[in-house]
Specification:
The complex is a heterodimer. By secondary structure, chain A is mainly α. In chain A, 63% of the residues lie in helices and 2% in strands. By secondary structure, chain B is an alpha+beta fold. Classes of the chains: A mainly alpha, B alpha+beta.
């Protein structure tokens, strides 16, 4: 080990190492978990650290930018942008609907894409919904769920937020399937992702502030919401045959 | 049957457009064909529960629409409507699940009161954001042990298309809501997860303390968001 001299690592790599170790330290140094562990969250200690890191990022970077957007761009325009971002992702939803053998959803998606990309001006307007064509947001995480991969263990990703190993694979697969077969440069899905995220954040400023304020344990509230939401998406509002005994009865 | 009288010129000039239009029409037809719901008569329970949800929705929307009434007063009216149709005792108890037994009678009473206040503070401050949304009842189902779930959909606004399920249980006084499930996220389950770790760390006392603390601070949010 050299005691003096310049670090040979390029500055960017050093910066990356600094960020990652900061995240790790935040993860390790968070308060010990008291009480019973949730079986769907065996990595709670690490997750809480990453969650705190994301919250910091949100407070200091994402929310201020979103606030700026919210100030400059009127809400109806933001909602139109939301629809356009949604429309841009329909090919992914279409493919995933097919992978889950949901042919009706696939048809809906295809028709929605055709209608909204043309008459709806690149998806800025949702004309398909007037024709009774509902959106189906099938992603690869749900496809894996459809074929039996569970939504847990819960995993909080840096920057991306609530996820699971299944949904992380799903996110990667969806991103790369946008890139390779169509020879779209990687920054296209990436900037769609960032743009959509900021836009969504800007629309949700009040709700998130309210949720954060109201929750007794915001981390747990978000975890429960994420896992329930994803499970529900995989179930697709199908009539649940098994009554939720555990949730609704005292005995 | 396909008509063969179309000339080749016509076909060439309009071919693409026609194809696109046909494709859309066929797709829409297929989609709506697939979507045709099976007709099924509503059970007596379903009809009863549905009536309660429908009444509540109408009354709540009426209060939300009338912005001439001061916010404070509207929150009070909403409390009266909502808490009249919700079984808060059952809800509070379901939220605690097994931990309910750890509470003394006095603590139970206090907890139900604090939880009610907590709900008012959490949701009451949001009434200013109401923006002409409508609620449509889209279905109902009876669960194996007699509860009824009424499925609704929000129309318009930022949550357009969001699905909200109300779970009702038959009580002596009639059908009462015991859970609200928004896009698969159950209120009872969400609060249960949050309260569980608090009770197991500090017992009933800690949960009551935290609720009291939140409720005291809750007034502040109300004032700021009420403008």
């Amino acid at each position: 080990m050299k005691s003096s001299g310049r670090d040979p690592a390029p500055r960017t790599r050093r910066a990356a190492v600094a960020v990652i170790s900061a995240a790790l330290i935040a993860g390790i140094s968070c308060a010990p978990i008291a009480g019973p562990r949730d079986p769907s969250d065996p990595w709670e200690r690490m997750n809480r650290g990453t969650f705190r890191f994301n919250e910091g990022l949100d407070r200091w970077v994402v929310a201020p930018v979103a606030k700026g957007m919210d100030f400059v761009i009127p809400d109806p325009v933001e909602r139109s942008m939301r629809r356009a971002f949604d429309n841009a992702r329909i090919p992914i939803h279409f493919g995933n609907a097919l992978l889950q053998l949901k042919f009706k959803s696939a048809f809906d998606d295809l028709a929605r894409f055709l209608l909204n990309s043309t008459i709806g001006f690149a998806g800025l307007f949702d004309v398909a919904i007037e024709a009774g064509l509902e959106a189906h947001h099938e992603d690869f995480g749900q496809t894996l769920g459809y074929w039996g991969v569970p939504a847990y263990p819960y995993l909080v990703l840096p920057i991306f937020g609530p996820s699971s190993p299944r949904d992380t694979v799903g996110l990667a697969a969806d991103t790369f399937s946008t890139v390779y077969p169509w020879f779209v440069p990687i920054y296209v899905p990436f900037s769609i992702g960032v743009g959509d995220r900021l836009n969504w954040r800007s629309l949700a400023l009040d709700q998130i502030a309210a949720e954060r304020e109201a929750a007794l344990d915001y981390y747990v509230a978000v975890r429960n919401a994420y896992l329930s939401y994803r499970e529900n998406q995989v179930r697709d509002q199908k009539e649940d045959e098994t009554d939720d005994e555990d949730l609704y009865y005292f005995d | 049957m396909m008509k063969t009288s179309i000339t080749s010129t016509e076909r060439r000039t309009h071919g693409l457009l026609r194809l696109a239009r046909t494709a859309v029409v066929v797709l829409v037809a297929l989609a709506s064909g697939f979507a045709a719901p099976g007709a099924r008569a509503m059970t007596e329970s379903e009809a009863g529960a549905r009536a309660v949800v429908s009444e509540t929705v109408d009354e709540v929307l009426a209060v939300l629409r009338d912005k001439s009434v001061p916010t404070e007063e509207r929150i009070r009216s909403l409390e009266k409507i909502v808490y009249g149709r919700f079984d808060l005792y059952v809800m509070s108890r379901l939220v605690l699940a097994r931990n309910w037994k750890r509470f003394s009678e006095k603590q139970k009473t206090e907890y139900v009161e604090e939880f009610k206040q907590y709900l008012t503070n959490s949701y009451g401050s949001r009434i200013e954001r109401y923006d002409q949304q409508e609620v449509e009842i889209i279905g109902e189902r009876e669960e194996p042990r007699g509860d009824v779930v009424i499925q609704t959909k929000i129309l318009g606004g930022e949550f357009d298309g969001a699905l909200v399920d109300y779970r009702l249980r038959k009580q002596d006084a009639g059908w009462r809501v015991i859970d609200v499930v928004i896009e698969g996220i159950s209120m009872v389950s969400n609060y249960r997860d949050q309260f569980k770790s608090i009770v197991s760390t500090g017992g009933p006392q800690l949960l009551l303390e935290k609720l009291r603390e939140k409720n005291a601070a809750g007034m502040v949010i109300d004032e700021t968001s009420a403008k």
